[in-house]
Amino acid sequence: MRVRVDPLVCEANAVCVGLAPEVFDLNDDDELLILQPDVPAAEQDRVRHAVRSCPKAALTLEE
User: Fold this and answer.
1) Contact yes or no for 8/60 (Cβ under 8 A)
2) Residue 48 has what pLDDT?
3) Helices (H), the chain
């Protein structure tokens, strides 16, 4: 599974960071960083939940 962010849509609300901090983070400019684009098996359920919870639908998954 691979996760991506559309930086033009993302507003850095950090919902994903709160749900899966091992995969998502914000930099000092409030831009979303994907720390692990190839999501480890142990984090996949949390990342799916984070993607569904994004208020701007800025995240996508490739399974």
Assistant:
1) no
2) 98
3) 15-19, 44-53
Q: Which residues, including other chains, have CB under 8 Å from residue 11's CB and lie 6 or more apart? A: 55, 56, 58
Q: How confident is the model at residue 37 (pLDDT cuts 50, 70, 90)?
A: very high
Q: For residue 47, name the pLDDT band (cuts at 50, 70, 90).
A: very high
Beta-carbon count within 10 A of 25 CB:
15
CA distance linking residue 57 with residue 46, whole number of Å: 16
- 62 - beta bridge partners? 2
- What is the amino acid identity at position 20? A
Which 3 state secondary structure label does DSSP give 25?
Answer: strand
Which of 43, 37, 42, 49 minimizes the C-alpha distance to 3?
Answer: 37
In the chain, the N- to C-terminal Cα span, in Å, equals 4
